[in-house]
Amino acid sequence: MGRVVVVSNRVAVPRRGEPSAGGLAVALKDVLKASGGLWFGWSGETRKNPTLEPRQVRAGGIDYATIDLSDEDHKGFYAGYSNNTLWPLFHFRLGLMEYDRAEAASYRKVNRDFAQALLPLLGPEDTVWIHDYQMIPMAAELRALGAQQRIGFFLHIPFPPFAVLSALPDAERLLRDLLAYDLVGVQTKRDLAGMINCFQDGLGLTPDATGGVRGEVAGQMRRAQLSAHPIGIDTRGFATLARKAAYGPETQRLTASMGDRALIVGAERLDYTKGLPHRMRGFAALLANFPEHLNKVTYLQVAARSRNEVASYRNLRRELDSLAGRINGDYAEFDWTPVRYVARAVARDTLAGFYRAARVGLVTPLRDGMNLVAKEYVAAQDPEDPGVLVLSSFAGAAETMEGALLVNPLDAEAMGETLDKALKMPLPERRERWENMMRGLEEQTATRWAESFLAELEELPLPEQDLLWAAPTRS
Ligand code: ADQ
């Protein structure tokens, strides 16, 4: 068996003095280490006239190869097409989606550049695993250059049905690009249904009995297997982190400042898919409709700033500043601030301690591929006195986390009622719900996710592709 080669837009090259990476990077590094693998992608740097000669370093038994992007490509490919077109589209936010032909061309060019830079580094036996929406056309570009290795793709964000995807002028091409992969993985059954619907309505391709679709791409007939592989976290590792962090200075300061009030916690990147304004309105509905919680509960929202170069993110920031100010203005007492809003990233162990200190984890995205915060919150709890997860039914995590209280984030009153229920939930019910979720999290870890995806990819019969090779090619 050859190496595993991971490709992602950003590469987690270890740097001295930087905090340890999250569960996803750890899981990928484990599979890379086991196969003597390579991680390839963008360096995070932009420069004038970058070359396609990758910079290579070796660290912790893994090879890293990265290339730089020009400012222009970074703007068109990353800020433009990836984050201003595909991100809102795949999260069902057509009103926020913009489209620009030059940016679409830049997206394609960067994917072609990535393919050209990676190809000379690939051995014939390698298995390539490409990640996320920034890189969808990369396998088609590799195939056009003659790559015959097994190539898999995993989409971390939702996959919408064709009624939504068809708003994209390049929808059919993007779907055809997926056929260049041997395996296309998504997070949930709902995403799988969306993708199958797109192949049917967009390209007229129906999956065969074993869940694969066949069609032409880059002048070849190919078959792509489609399947759902829900991502997990390093459950044990995160639980240990939270247990230790509970005694750390930050968590101690937080709990001391709370007195005997209950804590509701929310944490994410400051992103419009995460439903932050809706969450603040839901919390306001709790205070308005259940006055017994006044001066008895505090909502701490930690929101790391993100993608500041995109206007919709700057607008969100302004909206949240004003909402938090208004709720506090309406309800605060001289000794109580209902909303504590911290607009920056905090260290991983600090966050773990905050989750553990919170009676309620409030995770209410409008759409989310999976949502790891929901899983981290549960893993962080004290088994003797666990908190309650309030979770949006539009997060991928809702498909498997049956112990959570599910809400529709658009219904502020319902969110207020659910928060009231969570705050009043007796210990036996909290324990039962928590144990139910924890069992699932211990089975579905990040490592299990990576291994099961790669096992499915490596078991796919390659010779079949050779047979398909003989099919008519494009002139
Ligand atoms: P994201 O959209 O980034 O991931 P998520 O899965 O919740 O969302 O992961 C966020 C990570 O950042 C978590 O590990 C969390 O602890 C951390 N984090 C959140 N707020 C933070 C803060 N203020 N400071 C520091 N760290 C913070 C994408 C998809 C998701 C999918 C993942 C993995 O959008 O749906 O679950 O990839 O596939």
How would you explain this protein's 3D organization?
This protein has helices at 23-35, 71-90, 101-118, 138-144, 162-165, 171-178, 189-203, 235-245, 249-258, 276-289, 311-331, 348-357, 372-379, 412-424, 427-443, 446-459, 463-469; strands at residues 4-10, 38-46, 55-59, 62-69, 127-131, 150-154, 183-186, 212-217, 220-228, 262-269, 297-304, 339-342, 360-363, 388-392, 405-407. It is of the alpha/beta class and 475 residues long. The strands form two sheets. Strands 3-4-2-1-5-6-7-9-8 form a nine-stranded mixed sheet, with helices on both faces. Helix 1 (23-35) links the parallel strand 1 and strand 2 (38-46). The radius of gyration is 23 Å and the shape is globular. Residues 22, 24, 156-157, 231, 267-269, 302-304, 345-346, 351, 368-373, 376 line the site of adenosine-5'-diphosphate-glucose (ADQ).
Write a concise keyword list for the protein shown above.
475 residues, nine-stranded mixed β-sheet, Rossmann fold, binds adenosine-5'-diphosphate-glucose, 2 domains, alpha/beta
Per the principal axes of the C-alpha atoms, what is the gross shape?
globular
CATH superfamily of the largest domain: Glycogen Phosphorylase B
The proportion of residues forming helix, as a percent range, comes to 40-55%
Spans with pLDDT under 50 lasting ≥5 residues? 469-475
GO molecular function: alpha,alpha-trehalose-phosphate synthase (UDP-forming) activity
GO biological process, one term: trehalose biosynthetic process
Family: Belongs to the glycosyltransferase 20 family.
Organism: Teichococcus aestuarii
